[in-house]
Design a protein that fits this description.
By secondary structure, the protein is of the alpha/beta class. The protein has a single domain, classed as UDP-N-acetylmuramoyl-L-alanine:D-glutamate ligase, CATH 3.40.1190. The protein is about 35% helix and about 25% strand. It is built from ten helices and twelve strands. A six-stranded mixed β-sheet has the order 7-8-9-10-11-12, with helices on both faces. The protein has a four-stranded mixed β-sheet with strand order 2-1-5-6, with helices on one face. Strands 3-4 form a two-stranded parallel sheet. The longest helix is centred in the middle third of the chain and has 16 residues. The two termini are about 15 Å apart.
């Protein structure tokens, strides 16, 4: 995706103009996670789709610049996806997304050589919530399970998650080893407004659950543990942009968790990268 991030300098003037700082960046949840993983030293491949346009070529080159093995299929008809991120003068954020070529991701786009024992598959929830890419994602999950891979999935975003419904999402992600959600997504999936209660309910579906809590850090639930592991995030002097902070958290958590480090260490690593993302404009690390 290409993110167009608009930071309003004043309260939004309805039906008129509001001064803003507008910048463009590489985006897309899965691609963001891949970029943060690569910069942090992990070996990572990203499977996706882009348009045959300048934006698509730029996104392809960016990922390679981060050190990501970018397996991008070029769509001859659809443009590269775009997300308009509107940030108010108070820091509140709203996103307008056009998935573009991402909506045409198909099972044929999945490179078979990546699905091997010992590897891990992370699935962006957006690919399941979008009907166009859903079959490709379900095929990827099935291939990973056959290969004996571990699988993580994230809850994407609360509004589209609510539109699809909790039960279909839980059924589609059956077999995932680890679920990442924030408090709003946890509420949508369980009906429980309290994050710890929501995580406990989700633990009945997934062996491992991570609840991202923003300024309050994160918590981890695993089968067999009576209580969650909680970690506070590091202090952030100034939040520049919240775009992609959740993606950075996933990228920080996964390597430690896959290395079987203590949950608190994995949570701390996730919060560390999330704090870095909050200090940057856009959802990716600096090249």
């Amino acid at each position: 995706m290409t993110d167009t991030v608009a930071h309003a300098m004043l309260p939004l003037a309805k039906s008129s103009d509001t001064p803003a700082t507008v910048t463009m960046h590489g985006g897309g949840s899965g691609a963001n996670i891949a970029a943060w993983l690569a910069v942090d030293g992990a070996e990572v491949a990203f499977v996706g789709r882009r348009g045959a346009d300048i934006a698509g070529r730029n996104r392809d080159m960016e990922l390679m610049g981060y050190g990501v093995d970018a397996r991008l299929v070029m769509d001859p008809e659809r443009p590269t996806g775009t997300c308009v991120v509107m940030v108010t003068h108070k820091g509140d954020q709203t996103m307008l997304s056009d998935p573009g070529a991402n909506a045409a991701l198909s099972p044929d786009d999945l490179p078979k050589d990546l699905f091997t024992p010992g590897c891990h598959l992370h699935v962006s929830g957006y690919t399941l919530l979008n009907t166009g890419s859903r079959q490709a994602t379900l095929a990827a999950i099935a291939m990973a399970r056959r290969a004996g891979m571990t699988i993580s999935v994230d809850g994407a975003s609360s509004a589209p998650l609510e539109r699809v419904g909790a039960e279909p999402f839980l059924q589609m992600t059956n077999g995932a080893t680890l679920l990442f959600v924030n408090a709003d997504q946890g509420r949508v999936l369980t009906g429980r407004p309290e994050p710890e209660q929501a995580a406990r309910v989700l633990n009945a579906w997934y062996p491992h659950v991570v609840m991202k809590l923003g300024a309050d850090g994160a918590l981890f639930y695993a089968n067999g543990r009576p209580d969650p592991v909680r970690v506070q995030g590091p202090p952030v002097e100034r939040i520049v942009d919240r775009t992609g902070a959740g993606d950075a958290f996933c990228a920080g958590f996964l390597p430690s968790w896959l290395d079987k480090k203590p949950p608190g260490e994995a949570l701390t690593s996730g919060c560390r990268l999330a704090a870095k993302a909050l200090a940057l404009v856009g959802a990716r690390p600096l090249l």
